[in-house]
Amino acid sequence: MLMANGPAIIMAAFPGSTRGRALGLLGLTVGLGSLTGPGLGGVLIQAFGWPSVFYVNLPLGLLGLTLAQRFLPRQERLSDETLDVTGAVLFACGMVGFLLAMSHGHDWGWSSPPILCGIGAAALAFPTFYAWERRCEHPMLDFSLFRIWPFLSGNIVAFLSFLGMFTNAILLPFYLQGQLRLTPFSMGLVLSSLPLSMAFSAPVSGYLSERVNFATLTSIGLGIMSCGLLWLSLLGGAAPLWRAYAGQVILGLGAGVFMSPNNNSVLSSAPQDKVGLVGGILALVRNVGMVTGIAVAISMFEGFRGFALGRGLAPDSAFMSGFRAALTTGAVVCAAAATLSLARRRLFSANPAHEHHVIHKDA
Question: Which of 250, 256, 289 is nearest to 166 (CA)?
Answer without folding.
Answer: 289
